[in-house]
Structure formats: C-alpha cells, structure tokens
Design brief:
single chain, mainly alpha, 8 helices, about 0% strand, elongated
Length: about 140
C-alpha cells in the first residue's frame, strides 16, 4: 500500500487503467485490497467507471461477483452507486446478488435501501422470482 500511497501523493491519475479497461479501483476490489480502495477513493478515483469491452461491469458489480462485502459497503457509503438502478444487463444489484444466492450481501443491500420489489427490464422478473429460480 505504501507504493500506491506514494504514487497518489505524487498526483498519479487514479483512473488511468490497464488491460481490458480495468482501473486501479476494479483491480483493488477484485483482489480484496480494500485499504488501497480507500486510498483511491480519498484521491477521487471514479468508483462508478464501467469496464471497457464486453462486460461493462462497474466496480460495485466486481465487488459483488467477488464477494467483497467490505468494498460494496465502502461504495454504498458514498451514496453515488445507483442501488436500485438497472445495470446494462437490465437487472438491479439485488437481482445480481439474488442470482448468486449471496444472503449476507442481500442483507447489506437491503439495509442500504435496496428495493425488494424491483423488476428486471428484459425478463420482467421480480427479485423473489429470481430467488426461487436460482435455487431450482
């Protein structure tokens, strides 16, 4: 973390990415380096930038997919993550978590105001429907 802090203090661009459009924020979240994520946030890194390419995953999606609950909480604390908005796939974060059957993450999103009655755009699926279908 010391090297990252040094570079950030030297005004390195916290949003300058690398391979496949991954930014330092995406990499920190994916590898559960939450101390570095905190540093990047303190230096105004874009914590909503989607990956370039086919997936277009946002940092919060990466955090959910890698079960980095601490990073999800850090991102939600900003109130800049659209908790009930639809992702490019037409689902909400609650749908994503539900499809992964991640109960602790579901509790967290619900505590932050996730809408349990949200409906996906393409399938018109409720979160409850996804919960039942993901266990079938």
């Amino acid at each position: 973390a010391g090297l990252v802090q040094l570079l950030l203090e030297a005004k390195a661009d916290p949003d300058e990415g690398g391979e496949l459009g991954w930014t330092p924020v995406h990499v920190a979240i994916h590898s559960h380096q939450n101390v570095i994520l905190k540093m990047l946030k303190e230096h105004k890194a874009d914590c909503q930038a989607p990956l370039t390419g086919t997936s277009g995953m946002t940092p919060v999606e990466v955090a959910i997919k890698t079960d980095n609950i601490e990073a999800v909480e850090m991102l939600l604390d900003d109130e800049t993550v659209p908790l009930n908005g639809h992702l490019p796939q037409g689902i909400t974060l609650l749908h994503l978590v539900c499809r992964q059957q991640n109960v602790p993450m579901m509790y967290l999103l619900y505590e932050y105001g996730g809408d349990p009655n949200a409906v996906s755009k393409q399938e018109s699926a409720s979160i409850l429907y996804d919960a039942v279908a993901s266990q079938a």
